[in-house]
Amino acid sequence: QVQLVESGGGLVQPGESLRLSCTISGGFRPFYALSWFRQVPGKEREGVSCLSTSDGNGYYADSVKGRFTISRDSAKNTMFLQMNSLKPEDTAVYYCAAGWGFWSTDWWSTNKYDFWGQGTQVTVSA
Questions:
Q1: C-alpha span between 110 and 70 (Å, rounded)
Q2: Dihedrals φ, ψ of 74, to 5°?
Q3: pLDDT digits (tens, 9 = 90+) for 44-54
């Protein structure tokens, strides 16, 4: 059974950095899309970043471009989200997701993903 487990969330001040990790276990088929989403209470889950594993290209929401970087360590079955210059509006529960397919036009759509982690809280506050 596939499991995704996030870690690395926490409380930071504006301008600081965090790195989220997501370890994937139990998979027997390659995932072609590895992504991060976030959600705040009362709002829909929002796509933050996606890594196309076939070509290594990263996709980002406009709100995080230039500040966040997605990556992975294939040998460790782990994906990362490096978050720099954090802002209070980045506060959310962050989820990793894995999909057996990849669609560049709507990587941000939650229904494209087959497995999800349980989420990790990121709070940016002075």
A1: 18
A2: -60, -35
A3: 999 999 999 99
